[in-house]
Amino acid sequence: MHRMAQQGMPFAAHLARIAPDTAAWRTGPPSDITTRLLLAAHHALTTPLDQALPTGPRVSTTAARSRSTTTAPDTAAPKQPAPTEPAVPAHRQQATPAPRQGRGR
What pTM value is reported for the model? Predict the structure, then answer.
């Protein structure tokens, strides 16, 4: 806001856009009001006056592309399959079935 004031930009007009009772930041749980108001002020100050304020979170196309699963093949090393047996030390593993206890037939 200080930089906007130094450059003669009407920052008060930008912030006035978040004042209406129907502003999106006013709806939601009271515990999140500070976060919603901070984001609303950020959007109001960074959005030109001739454009409408965004109603949802802004999406970074660069970040979205970097996380997309369809833009490039996966270059990460393949994951090792999960072991099918529990990890037991070799000296504790049972090589053959235990003999039946009790009467033999």
Answer: 0.46
